[in-house]
Design brief:
- This protein has 3 domains: about 80 residues, SRP54, nucleotide-binding domain (Four Helix Bundle (Hemerythrin (Met), subunit A), Up-down Bundle); about 190 residues, 3-Layer(aba) Sandwich (Rossmann fold); about 110 residues, Orthogonal Bundle (434 Repressor (Amino-terminal Domain)), CATH 1.10.260.
- It has 20 helices and 8 strands.
- Strands 3-2-4-1-5-6-7-8 form an 8-stranded mixed beta sheet, with helices on both faces.
- Strand 5, helix 9 and strand 6 form a beta-alpha-beta unit.
- The longest helix has 25 residues.
- About 35% of the residues are buried.
- The structure holds guanosine-5'-triphosphate.
């Protein structure tokens, strides 16, 4: 899991001071020593670490007193705010040209994920922003690169502009932009050549394309797994070409986090998007504050909610809520809820966004098994209508029949019945609590 070591260490440090009613300078010093180590271990640039620790220390010692927080919580708040700031503060938006098409140049070293990201970004622009992007294959040095972009285009059902590998990239860009104007594409995404390392030829060509196409954005794609190398690459590209933002790929891997935390501060250019997997929908806008929460174990609840909103039918959600309140929740509802959760993506990914998730030891190994869900579904489908509505009628012989019918075991049937009972109890507690204004952590009912 990305940021795991950093998250563990920072959360350990925070745990120590969380409840403290008083915090001395020595406490802050001690804490800052651990924060410093945690950041260095996560491969964050040492200058960045130094500045960060200095800022947090100053603010933590000279805290204005807020009544609603304990001193321990105030220090945590400072750490979170500064982490957010370090990653760019506000979420940064993608440019929109006043005179369409908006032109985006995608640059980066080979293997960083440039071509994949170009496809993902076009997909996002179309799906989320209702745009009509044109993809441009301008990497003529690696014939496979053109094919790769064409494959991506086919997969997404998006047009790809290509003139083969005998025409110069500058000419390709020029003609692509003309075509985009004619055909009313509002975004042009130019996939430029990548090399194994930065050299003058590459930069020269990129500068030529930049000069001709006058792009609204130049996105540098870097691989988060390469840590400080990614930061150095960003610095070089920015100096030579001037970039407008960074896309950090492979954040789904177990990167220590150094690149994510250093790039903004070193290059003064924002991280705009993060790649979270190989699939074409695995690109997310980068939210510094959410990322900071995630690192500090406060959970990325907002992203989770957004994901849920994108996938859950609102009408149905309301209906479900009503049922939960009136306690008329049945196994049929449960089945439907399972279906909706499944649409949100693999369960272990969702779980990782929950507050305290990286405290749950072995979550990575746990691999919340989507197969398990299939079993649960099979069990429910083997129940009669009456059993689904009134599970208390399910006696021993019915359990045997259900297990047989669903190809599972009696133990599994028992477990599900028990979980369902527990879940109903929990719902009762929660709906009872709402009136009193108390909060309790939500749990995935069937975990
Ligand atoms: N896990 C994961 N893999 C990714 C991500 N982004 C890209 N990849 C993978 O990284 C590999 C390289 O991606 P490409 O898009 O081919 O790289 P490129 O930078 O275009 O390389 P060139 O075309 O050679 O310049 C591919 O196997 C991608 O599937 C990501 O966010 N997560």
């Amino acid at each position: 899991m990305a940021f795991e070591g950093l998250a563990d260490r920072l959360q350990g440090t925070i745990q120590k001071i969380r409840g403290k009613g008083k915090i001395s300078e020595a406490d802050v010093k001690e804490m800052m020593r651990e924060v410093r180590l945690a950041l260095l271990e996560a491969d964050v640039n040492f200058k960045v670490v130094k500045q960060f620790v200095k800022k947090v220390s100053e603010r933590a010692v000279g805290q204005e007193v807020m009544k609603s927080l304990t001193p321990g919580q105030q220090v945590i708040k400072v750490v979170k705010e500064e982490l957010t700031e370090l990653m760019g503060g506000e979420q940064s938006q993608i440019a929109v040209s006043k005179r369409p098409p908006t032109i985006i140049m995608m640059v980066g070293l080979q293997g960083a994920g440039k071509t994949t990201t170009t496809g993902k970004l076009a997909n996002l622009l179309r799906k989320k922003h209702n745009r009509k992007p044109l993809l441009v294959a301008a990497d003529i040095y690696r014939p496979a690169a053109i094919k790769q972009l064409e494959t991506v285009g086919k997969q997404l059902d998006l047009p790809v502009f290509s003139l083969g590998d005998q025409v110069s990239p500058v000419e390709i860009a020029k003609q692509a932009i003309e075509k985009a104007k004619e055909e009313h594409h509002d975004y042009v995404l130019i996939d430029t050549a990548g090399r194994l390392h930065i050299d003058e030829n590459l930069m020269g060509e990129l500068k030529d394309i930049k000069e001709l196409s006058n792009p609204d954005e130049i996105f540098l794609v870097v691989d988060a797994m390469t840590g400080q190398d990614a930061v150095n690459v960003a610095e070089s590209f920015n100096e030579a070409l001037g970039i407008s933002g960074v896309v950090l790929t492979k954040l789904d891997g177990d990167t220590r986090g150094g690149a994510a935390l250093s790039i903004r501060s070193v290059t003064e250019k924002p991280i705009k998007f993060v790649g979270m997997g190989e699939k074409m929908d695995a690109l997310e806008a980068f939210h510094p504050e959410r990322m900071a929460s995630r690192i500090l174990g406060m959970g990325d609840v907002l992203s989770l909610i957004e994901k849920a909103q994108a996938n859950v039918d609102e009408e149905k959600a309301k209906e479900l809520e009503q049922k939960m309140r009136t306690m008329s929740f049945t196994f049929d509802d449960f089945l439907e809820q399972l279906g909706q959760v499944k649409q949100m993506g693999p369960l272990d990914e969702l779980l990782k966004m929950m507050p305290g998730a990286n405290k749950m030891k072995g979550l990575d190994k746990l691999q919340v098994d989507d197969k398990q869900i299939v079993h649960v579904e099979a069990i429910i489908q083997s129940m009669s209508k009456k059993e689904k509505t009134n599970p208390e009628v399910i006696n021993a012989s019915r359990r045997k029949r259900i297990a047989k019918g669903s190809g599972t075991s009696i133990q599994e049937v028992n477990r599900l019945l028990k979980q369902f009972e527990d879940m109903k109890k929990m719902m009762k507690q929660m709906s009872g609590m709402q009136g009193k204004g108390k909060k309790k952590g939500m749990k995935f009912p069937f975990m």
